[in-house]
Amino acid sequence: MDKQNFLQLINALQTIVRFIPLKWGNIQNNDWDSLLNLFEINDYETLEKRVFALDEPIKNYFRRRWFIWKCAQCDEHIFTENQNVKANPNSKAQCCTKSKSKIPRL
Fold it and tell me: What is the pTM of this model?
């Protein structure tokens, strides 16, 4: 994500947060997830087109998941703007430290 994409996404998220139910209301649902590949959708307008024919609870489920995912991408962008942070080349990796032993346990 470059700076321009980041700023566009931030503006979109600030606009759509007013329309997305803040209450999650569901747990992650594999059956619903199989209806749509959420991670290939890069903008809210496309999301709305793809969920158009779904029931409202399912639409809201995807709206909320997409919103949270895009917020996480913004967070990652902010972190990598710091010169002391190196982005993991594998964006799907869940661990980015070489030595887990250096991570303090809570």
Answer: 0.76
